[in-house]
Structure formats: structure tokens, C-alpha cells
Specification:
Two copies of one chain form a homodimer.
Chain A: E1 3-5, E2 15-20, E3 33-48, H1 56-64, E4 69-77, H2 87-102, E5 109-114, H3 124-135, H4 142-148, E6 157-165, E7 168-177, E8 190-195, H5 201-212, E9 230-235, H6 249-271, E10 279-287, H7 290-302, H8 304-311, H9 318-325, E11 337-342, E12 345-351, E13 354-355, H10 360-367, E14 371-377, E15 383-390, H11 394-401
Parallel strand pairs in A: 4-5, 8-9, 10-14
Antiparallel strand pairs in A: 1-6, 2-3, 3-4, 3-9, 6-7, 7-8, 10-15, 11-12, 11-14, 12-13
Helix pairs in contact in A: 1-2, 2-3, 5-6, 7-9
């Protein structure tokens, strides 16, 4: 049995977290520096943005994770520490500071930054705050950490799952932040996961890559792949299960739980996209291949025209067909069926690639919900996929028209 | 010498045009049916959307242009005649009606429709209006035709060029419409070109494909590739130049003039994108290959975050670097230079991949103009490209949040 539980990033045994305001942001009521710590060194793995322009913290984290070991995370918001001449130096300094405060090697620290690109990161606020940050670490600190990594996010994103593995109770938990510059293909924004499962660094890395393609890589908020996206996981092993060292039944269970967690975080991220008023899920069935199913789901969820129509609760299914058509995927257009569903009901709008008469009032009601699913049924095979996105709104334009000032 | 002249789609010898309100649109003050006619059969060619979902008019035009001959265009706005069970029948009927009114074979008519997808096209308004439309054909009718093909466009798009070819004065002219669902890769919206040059259908087709990749295929307004995009050209031969039948010097001159015309129409289309307040040109120099230059220019011009920053006149160059980084093109990030220019001046914002100090007030002034160029200089080679787009605004969301009602 797998179930969601409370506790977020500190639900797993051995982990504590904290978040403070250190002063990178001017607004004193917004925490801007987060730390996650494990009482013992962990097996660790991460996946990063595919953007050629990579934030300096990513390069340092990649170095530090070469040996598959980490014990802490330090992360600031308000400044991405990217495209700066002194970026690497500052990112390494953040690891040193965390290491000194925690009495662990700097090489065992995962570092991340999120915020504006191309402005020099002031290190003094972090130097001044890091001792206090470490002193505040607790099993109740996950929520503060979740807040400290937020940029334009409106809600904190914390999820945890509990399940049985080798006769032991195991947890995976995490925190994440969005909410602009988010797009498929390893655009996971920042997400830090912890687990008390015993699993080797190699298998942890495999599991993360397996799961990401059906969760974080299926999110699109605005089609922009960030320079700083990082998804990192640390496994303490304190649950006491037999260590997972190969792709056996235990590995499968672990992956199932990890996918359940990551899908939930993906929905939270998509629904809290910049300016979003609703979560849009695009579910594709009957595709020729997994690749086609994913490609079509992403194409629809990325369409600016479709997203604007969803904002207006307008059942403009022609835009769904249009996005299917330019997805580059194999599809027999004459077999396409499109249906909108939400808590208010469901409505069929297109069958055999052509419109069907439908009740516009009911469609408006269905599409006015906070969570709307567009279900696309193809007649080309058995493959399916789900993508996560949001509507395109006035507020997206407002937020991004003047983000720096 | 090549120069822009007045006259639009009727600048070339032999062509007349007209546009009327027939009733497909409810608003009686908006023309919705256009016709272009040549006094003799023309060599003709066209390029179409790459969307798998193709409007019925495209399929009929493809049939009709198989022999490389056309004598007229009929085009309605307000309804795309796409994803309808009776689409082909209606598109063929439009050709018949135009053919009867003009006393030419239905097979010599180019047909196009633009507007909402998935609503049955009412044919009666066209049946009732076609005689009157044909009666109104004149060399002054191009402007009415330009208006009749508009959907959410705010300005009419008419351009013509004049040049010398084989000792004769030759014209190419055209009308076009945007303004949403526009994206690179053969997303030319609707554009009808006419010329009095003598040129074979084969060479006309070659020229059109040559020119489109540096003009219409470099536009992006919202990343959505429409189902109905058509760029068609008819050549009457009435200029009396020696017929172009191979890729000789005359062909090169013709292509130069055609490119000059198509780039100008592309800028008009981009600057009048849905909700746009300004034209954005992205110019890339020093790329490794033409493919990389085009890819980078397109990636920047397509970025929602960059487009929103341009709306806010915010010199957020980090988003330019971000879009370069995820373009999938080969680039040495550490050599990238970014500069914004407009009628108000120019401002360097990034050198060697990192920010430089700049005057924010001047930057705001530069970016507040109606036409802004972002110049990206790479250090990877000699290739260059230019892409055309617009800012992302509240009005884009407004227009597309409730387009159908």
C-alpha cells in the first residue's frame, strides 16, 4: 500500500530542514535561504536542465555528486547565480559555508540557486545567516525550506509518500518550486527529495531518470527551459530495508512510489504556474507509441492558443486538433476524439476528427473548474501519456513584463 | 534597382482584385470575401502548412495547382472550413462559384479560408455574393481584398516591389494576413502574391521555397502552426521579360526581389501579431551554420518570457541567453554578446556570456519603441539569420481567451 502522508521533505528518517530570510531578497517577510540535512551521509543522485546555459550551482553540484554521496542541500532564491563571471566561486563558497556550519565536507553539499539571471550573487547575506540556518534545522522545518526556495510561486509544494519495502516502512518526501521558465525535457525547476530507503547511488540515479520522464518532463508552463533546473534526491537508508542494488522487485516498488510522489509534485507545479488560474491535464490514449503519446500530450499542453482558451473557459477544441497536427507525431487525424472533463462533468466535443454538437453552457461550467482534463483518444495503438500545464493569463504577462524591478 | 512601390496585389500587370462583405461574418462593416483575378492563365505555385491537420481548402488548392496553372484566388475569412465533414465539398464549391463568375475552369482557382476551426462553412453567403464580387474586380481593389482576408489583424498588409529584369520593368506584389497561430516551419498564414514576370511554374515553385525559409518561416507570433497556412503566387508574364526557365541570373534577380517583398510582409505580420504592441527582430551573427543561426534566432523570438519582457520594455537579457541555451543549436556560451537597438539608440547588455553594466533608463527608452532589434553576436562562425516576432501582451490573452464568442 502506498499513501500520501504529511511531513514533506523531512518525512523520511534522518532528515531535518530549515528556511530563513538572509537578505538576498529585499522583502524581509520572504525566506530566501533553505537547508536540508541528513544525520548521516546519503546515496545521492540528480538530474539537471538540458539548457546549454547552465547555472554555476549546477556545475558545482555535478562535481560534488560524482561520488554519489551527499549529506546536505543549500539553496537560495532571489538570484540564480547564472551568467556571472564569479558564479563558480560563489557556488563553491556556498558549499563551504554549509559544510562548515554542519561540520561535513563541502563536497557533500548539493547547491542550488533560483531567481534572476545575470546579477552578481551577494555572498555576505549567506555568510551571515548560515550558522543560524543550521541551528534551526528540525523535522518541522520542511515548510520553511519550501517557502525559502519559492520565487513567483504562490503555494508551497511539499509532498510525501509512505510504503512498505522488504518488510520495512519507507518514506519518500520532497519540496519543489516553479513557476515560470518551465518546460518539458528536464525542466524540473528545483526539487529536493529525501528518502529513508536503503538504495545504492547507482540505482537511485536510474530510478530518478526513469521516473522523471513521466512526471517532471511532462510539465510545461511557458515553454522556456530554465538554466538552473535541478532535481536531487538523497537516500539515508535508515528505514532498514535490504539495500536495493539491482533492478529487482524492490526497485520496482521504489520507482512506483517515487513516480506517485513526482506526479503529485508535477501537478502542484503546473497548477501554480506563473499567473495560472487552473491546472490543465492532457491525457492521451490510443497512441502508436509512448513517444507519440508523450509528444502529443506535450504539444497540446504547450499551445499558447489552447492555454488562452482554457483561461477563457472556451471549449475551442479546434486548437487541440491543431496542436495534435503540428506535434510531429504519427496520428490518424480522422480517428481523433476529444473530451473535456472536470469536477463539473464531462463533455465530448470532437469525434472522428470533426466537431460534434455540444451544450456550450455545460462546456463553460466544465472548463471553469480549477482542474480541467482534456482527454484525447486516438485510434492508432495502445500507448498513453499524461502532461501537466496551466492556462495562459493576464497575470502571466504582468509577472513577466517586469520581473526584475 | 529594386524599390517598394504602391499597388499591392494589383501592382503587377494583368491583375485585379476585390473584397466584399458576404455575410460569413455577422459584422456587416467587415469585408469577408476576397477575389484576385488575372486576365490570362498564370504560372502558379504555393507552399502550405506543415500541420498534419490541413484545412480542406488546402487539399483542393493542392489538386488544382498540380498542373502549375491558376487564374484566380477566392478566399473567405471568419471560418477556416477545417475539421468539417463537408469541408472538401464546400471548398470545391467555392472554386466552382468563382469559376462560373469569372468564366474560367474551377480547376484554375486557388481557394483559401481562415477563421474558426470546426464550424460548418455556410456556402449561401458566398453563392449570393460571388457575382457582385467578380463585378467589383479592379486594379484599385487590392486594399478591399487585403481587408477581406483579415481575421484579428489590425492593419491591412499590402506590399509591392518594382525591378528590372531582361530589360523590362517587372512587379511583384501581395497581400497577407496573420495574426495568431503563427510559427516557423511553413506557417505563413495566408499570403497571395502576383507578378507580371515571365517565369515557368517550376522555377516559380523553386523561388517560393527558396525565399520562404528566410522570410515567412522566420516569423513566430505564438508558436502555433496553423492548419490553413497558404502562400500562393501567380505569374502573368505580361512584363514581357524573357521567360525564366532555369536558375540563371534572371532567376537570382527575381528571387532577390521576391525575398525583399516577403521579408517586408513578414515584418508587417510579426508587428501586427495578436495583441502585439511592437515588432521584435532577432538578428544573429557569427553562428556556426545557417541552421544554427536560424535556430537561435527562432528560439529567442519564440520565448514567452522574452516576449513578455519586451512588452514591459525590460532589458532582461538573461532570458535571451536562456533561449539561446535551449535552442538545441551549437554555441559557445562564453562568447555570446547581446545588444538591443531601436530608433532611440543602442545598448550593450551582455558580453562574453556575462552581464555588463548598462544605463537602465536608456535601456527602457530603447525598448519602448515600436520596433526593437535584439542583436546576438556569436563567435562560432560566419552564418547569420533574422527572425521576426512580437511581444506577449495582455491583449493576446484577451483575444484568445474568448475568440469564438
Amino acid at each position: 500500500m502506498m499513501q500520501f502522508v504529511s511531513g514533506g521533505v523531512t518525512a523520511a528518517k534522518g532528515f531535518t530542514a530549515a528556511g530563513v530570510h538572509c537578505g538576498i531578497r529585499k522583502n524581509k517577510s520572504k525566506r530566501d535561504l533553505a537547508m536540508i540535512y541528513c544525520e548521516k551521509p546519503c546515496a545521492a543522485a540528480a538530474v539537471y536542465t538540458q539548457n546549454l546555459v547552465k547555472g554555476a550551482p549546477i556545475l558545482v553540484t555535478q562535481e560534488n555528486l560524482k561520488n554519489g554521496v551527499a549529506q546536505a542541500v543549500i539553496c537560495n532564491s532571489g538570484n540564480a547565480n547564472t551568467c556571472n563571471a564569479d558564479g563558480l566561486e560563489k557556488a563553491r563558497r556556498m558549499c563551504e559555508l554549509a559544510g562548515e556550519a554542519l561540520n561535513i565536507p563541502a563536497q557533500d553539499v548539493i547547491v542550488a540557486s533560483t531567481g534572476v539571471i545575470g546579477q552578481i550573487l551577494p555572498i555576505e547575506p549567506i555568510e551571515n545567516a548560515v550558522e543560524d540556518l543550521a541551528a534551526q534545522l528540525s523535522t518541522e522545518g520542511g515548510t520553511n525550506a519550501a517557502e525559502a526556495i519559492m520565487t513567483t510561486d504562490l503555494i508551497k509544494k511539499e509532498v510525501a509518500v509512505r510504503f512498505e519495502l522488504g518488510g520495512k516502512t519507507v518514506h519518500i518526501g520532497g519540496i519543489a518550486k516553479g513557476s515560470g521558465m518551465i518546460h518539458p525535457n528536464m525542466a524540473t525547476m528545483l526539487c529536493f527529495l529525501t528518502t529513508d530507503a536503503a538504495i545504492s547511488a547507482e540505482m537511485l540515479d536510474e530510478a530518478l531518470h526513469d521516473v522523471v520522464k513521466d512526471s517532471f518532463n511532462m510539465i510545461s508552463i511557458d515553454g522556456d527551459t530554465s538554466t538552473n533546473d535541478t532535481l536531487a534526491i538523497m537516500a539515508s537508508g535508515l528505514a532498514g530495508n535490504p539495500e536495493i542494488t539491482q533492478k529487482d522487485a524492490g526497485y520496482e516498488i521504489f520507482c512506483q512510489a517515487l513516480l506517485m510522489l513526482c506526479k503529485e509534485l508535477s501537478k502542484l507545479l503546473a497548477g501554480d504556474g506563473e499567473g495560472a488560474t487552473k491546472l490543465i491535464i492532457c491525457r492521451v490514449n490510443g497512441a502508436k507509441s509512448d513517444k507519440d503519446a508523450r509528444g502529443i500530450a506535450k504539444s497540446v499542453i504547450c499551445s499558447s492558443l489552447f492555454k488562452a482558451a482554457m483561461f477563457g473557459a472556451d471549449a475551442n477544441w479546434g486548437r487541440v486538433l491543431c496542436a495534435i497536427g503540428y506535434s510531429g507525431c504519427q496520428v490518424d487525424v480522422n480517428k481523433v476524439q476529444v473530451r473535456f472533463t472536470s469536477a463539473m462533468g464531462e463533455i465530448l466535443v470532437c469525434r472522428n476528427g470533426a466537431g460534434v454538437e455540444f451544450d456550450e453552457d455545460l462546456a463553460k461550467q466544465v472548463l471553469s473548474e480549477k482542474k480541467v482534463t482534456v482527454e484525447i483518444t486516438l485510434g492508432d495503438g495502445d500507448a498513453k501519456a499524461e502532461a501537466y500545464g496551466c492556462d495562459l493569463t493576464y497575470d502571466y504577462v504582468k509577472i513577466n513584463g517586469d520581473y526584475r524591478t
